[in-house]
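queue> holo job accepted (3-methyl-2-oxobutanoic acid)
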Amino acid sequence: MRTIEIFDTTLRDGEQTAGVNLNTEEKIEIAKRLERLGVDVMEAGFPAASKGDLDAVKKVASIIKNSSVTGLARSNQSDIDHAWEALKESAEPRLHVFIATSPIHMTYKLKKTPDQVVEAAVDAVKYSKKKFPVVQWSAEDACRSDLVFLARIVEKVIDAGASIINIPDTVGFTNPEEYGKIFRYLLKNVPNIQKAVLSAHCHDDLGMAVANSLSAVENGANQIECTINGIGERAGNASLEEIAVALAIREDFYQAKTNLKLKEISRTSQLVSRLTGIAVPPNKAVVGKNAFAHESGIHQDGVLKEKSTYEIITPELVGVPSNQLVLGKHSGRHAFRDYLAKLGFQPEESKIKVLFEDFKLLADRKKEMTEEDIFALLIDHRIQP
Ligand code: KIV
Ligand code: ZN
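queue> job finished
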């Protein structure tokens, strides 16, 4: 059984969500929660981006002891110096340095030839290694890069001292088969690849960030980069909670585990949503309000008989107290009876039949039935507890 390292980037890539701006206190609060969750690495920010971000990364690095803290830098000495200033007091200073490797980015953004990009990447890693014991290198837009070039630059940066190689799907362009193939290719064609840990970093533009990350695990990645609630640039990053729970629930398939304390997931999700102001959609896997809610009669009946009929994840696993049987027009009599019992009412079967008929008439007109609606029905029918 392999252990997959979880690299959380909620405080860096997550903070790049349009409209999100976390101050130092908010970053510290989230960082402490991520530490309790058990992330192996947290990327606390981009120190060269602003003085505020440098100070926040510095504060987080001085407080967090049980997760490694890192910061992002472009491939230039000034960014690396800013990151060192922010991280030098952390338990294990670790840098995340990147450069783009796709023809589109090299031509239009960097205005460099591939050889110049290799040189800049190697120089940046060598310079970083003079200060940082651990250097992670990322090939921005790796999935639109030429594979032969990618293998060449990866070999060179490993020689220069990078010990973690990250393969970002920066624009969420790839799919699981293609992404897995990149990992297989690098493992086969980079002679010194065994000196490095391979890492996945996926964006969700086509809704495949989690599937792509899991494919990377199947194909040799030992680190996954992700964010709480999947927040991040544009459509966001791969969701930490979905990856963690998928690995745990399908341990039989992935043969991999993480160091995360899954029970902390729900509270962490709520904190990130509150402090970033980004609401979690109700149908979001694992952390959405409806993730453990059953509405239809057939499902409610099944769950009341045996939870595993319609629940592959127990709510308790991720720190949610219990599942919910939501009453609506699809609900069945079994769930209705159960709901009344929970409110302290156990009318005889003939009364339940009449009540249930009225309940269905009302449910047809309303989107969601509330506890007040049920009490009103009970009062109308003069049912006592
Ligand atoms: O998506 C991306 O390419 C990134 C890099 C900076 C790692 O976030
Ligand atoms: Zn990213």
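queue> The chain has a mean pLDDT of 97.
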